[in-house]
Amino acid sequence: MTITAYGSGAYRSAKPDSFVSSRTQFDDLQRQLATKERSTSYGDLGIDRRVSLDLNAKLSSLDGWLAGIGLADVNLKLMSGAVENFAKMATESRNDMRSNTYLASSTGQTAPQVLAQEKFKQTLDLLNSNVNGRYLFSGRTSDTQPALGYDEIINGSAGKDGLRQVIEERRKADLGSDGLGRLQLGMETPETIAMSDADHGYGFKLGSVSATGTGIAVTPQTPLPAGTKAAFSIAVTDQPAPGDKVSITLDLPDGTQAQVTLTARAPGTTGSDADSFEIGADSAATAANLRNAIGKGLETAAQTSLSAASSQVAAAAFFAGSTGNPPVRVPGADPYTATADPTNVGVSDTVIWYRGDDAADSARGTAIVQVDQGQVVGTGARANEEAFRVGLAQFGIMAVESFPADDPASQARYDAMAERVADRLGFGGTTQKPAEIITELGSAQTALAGAKERHQSTKDYLTTTLSGVQNVTTEEVATQILALQTQLQASYQVTSMLSKLSLTNYL
Q1: Which of 210, 263, 289, 290 is deepest in the core (most CB within 10 A)?
Q2: 194: which DSSP letter?
């Protein structure tokens, strides 16, 4: 008789996989205890695998958005700081350029001008800010340095003219070879003076001419002489009285105006021919004196107000240039006699100061950050935005202008320049202001901060939920290990006993 269940070697008939399975389970529990993870694959999670996959996908998206927000936030802080520094320097220069502050120097430049050169260089450095290989003020071409260096912009290089030459060229075109601002001044009759401007875009344009008293009559010429925009006849019909005035309003290329006012003075008295004229022995002599005074007055206005206006127009045109739209220049070999409008057609000898993206769309839209499923935030900027162009133009004008101590017109020229520079550095009217850029960048920072807070809160919640699906607690695993240990110990003991069982021992 054979007792199969308890026969010798019967323990070999036990399922060998039971010990292996228990041992594998014990090893897995030890792994869980070490890693705190329930499994090494989604398949082992059972029905929770779908929940885990969904939560991990959502967390991955949140991590991507948060990473983009973090990088963009750093860029925005640096950009805002750069614009704030630029605005501060513009305000300082505006305060420096007060009227009646001219002090002659051996270099021909005042202290505010020297400081403006440094502000120009600092502004270029700010606009060339680079973070992780990305230029912050270059629009979409973030791998291209947006602005050239100071010396190349001011003085040019490699056969290309810089700002200094462009301003000098425009000044000559507005001044004219006779120094009268391209106006024509002559005598119709011994008692009548004729004044006219030209129909091109350079020099003075006659706004109005008027006279007080009864001895001088002003009449607009009709029809206009060919090639003019305005023309006036100034006739000395009788001897004016001392104190009578002739006033000429001149329109300047930058949109401002200059006034030439000449006051009649008694015979034999002295005075400046630029602002007064002597009453002569007769009407013809008075007319000749008046004509001479008008010429002197125009020359003075041309050297001061017109010169300052020319610098503004030239600097604005220079800093409006880009690789896709070069700055316009006065055409022709002789600027003094130029009549054609400034153009960039066929002009390739001018420095292009800005090398970045120059599309017509919003500068903020050149760098977009996806911060949520349906929300994007614009964080871009361009170095050639209007506020920067205006500021650089004013710093550039101050850097290149010279006012020699031995030139009697230097103070008046300086005051004319200072007035315009201070006005434009106020960023008045519809001109883009640095504060507008700062506000837009600040708004973007606020949007990023809101998205970051929202995503972080969501991430914390999802992470907690996912932990309940994928992770285990030490207490739970320890309890399972203890239970499995007890089970394995009992199984080994029973198996050991069975391995020693024989028929003899059984009987």
Answers
A1: 290
A2: E
